[in-house]
Specification:
Number of helices: 3
Number of strands: 10
Number of domains: 2
Length: about 325
């Protein structure tokens, strides 16, 4: 009897335990089912969001490509920029697709998609600005081309005028040169005509004695001074006034005797336009009538034997010459 009660009590306890266990299992299964349903719901939501973002990404990317393609034109610089922007957009699209492929990156993907929108808008604005600038430059270039064409036309007209003026100027210069040459010839003739000729040239050697009296000598060893005297002829073409006569004394070797400290110098021979040394210059107050002039040359050293030549110049032209001999 006692044993029967004990078995009944044990069975009751087992039944209660089984009921409790089944209840707990039911609660666990309910909770797990709820969790799985919730997880499936979240996965479905994420999948739906991912699909939506992918569709939005593809739509934005394809629209941007189409718009960029429409912006293609004849400007190589703009075309190169558009191609670069296409490459940048593709890189950004691939980056977003990588984020969408990994669970938990939806937030980052949304942010990058938003950035992509801003990037596309920025690209469009940049291209439109460059296109506007390019159109403005084209318009300016067209204006400049018209101005350049006008300038070229004006320049051509100026060239023609300049050519005509140059031709006329060349003719004037030629006429002027002819006049200058004729004037030079006439001036030279006048100068030659105004040269005062000299005659009766007396050139000889002298010795100055202690009493300062000059004695004419024929022997070179006795000569201490040369004297050249000459008569100026009448010339009414020359204006009255001071006239300079350059006296050249050439030694037997044909060399011009000259000492700068004693008054020697250089003048221009108008007949040859060459520089010419002279021995001494004499100034004469000329009044168009015959006049006598003399010049002395005492270098303080002995003279050599031989035949000397004397040339007298007026206004750069030879006015007269003679020779004398020292034995």
């Amino acid at each position: 009897m006692s044993t029967t009660k004990s078995n009944t009590s044990n069975n009751k306890n087992l039944t209660i335990g089984a009921i409790v266990a089944l209840s707990l299992l039911a609660v666990f299964l309910l909770f797990r089912n709820y969790s799985l349903n919730k997880s499936n719901s979240e996965l479905e939501s994420q999948f739906s969001e991912t699909t939506k973002l992918k569709d939005e990404l593809n739509e934005q990317y394809n629209d941007a490509l189409a718009e960029l393609q429409e912006l293609h034109g004849s400007n190589e610089e703009l075309n190169a920029l558009i191609e670069q922007q296409k490459d940048d957009l593709l890189a950004q699209k691939e980056k977003i697709e990588g984020l969408l492929a990994v669970k938990g990156n939806l937030k980052k993907a949304r942010k990058e998609l938003k950035n992509l929108k801003s990037q596309i808008a920025s690209y469009k604005e940049e291209i439109n600005q460059l296109r506007a600038q390019n159109e403005e430059l084209v318009a300016q270039n067209s204006d400049l081309s018209e101005q350049n064409s006008s300038l070229q036309s004006n320049l051509e007209a100026e060239r023609m005028n300049s050519a005509e003026l140059s031709s006329e100027r060349a003719m004037l210069i030629s006429d002027k040169e002819k006049l200058s040459q004729e004037k030079a010839k006439l001036s030279r003739k006048v100068n030659i005509a105004s040269v005062i000729k000299v005659e009766n040239i007396d050139a000889a050697g002298y010795k100055i004695r202690s009493n300062k009296k000059a004695v004419k000598k024929r022997y070179a060893k006795n000569v201490t001074e040369l004297r050249i005297c000459f008569d100026l002829t009448e010339n009414n073409i020359t204006d009255p006034g001071t006239e300079n006569f350059m006296v050249r004394i050439l030694n037997p070797r044909g060399e011009t005797i000259a000492v700068d400290d004693l008054g020697s110098g250089v003048f221009i021979n108008q007949a040859t336009n060459d520089d010419m040394r002279f021995t001494k210059m004499v100034e004469v107050d000329y009044d168009n009538s015959p006049t006598k002039a003399c010049v002395k040359w005492a270098p303080g050293k002995s003279f050599e034997k031989g035949t000397y030549k004397v040339e007298i110049y007026n206004k750069g032209y030879l006015a007269g010459n003679t020779t004398f001999k020292l034995k």
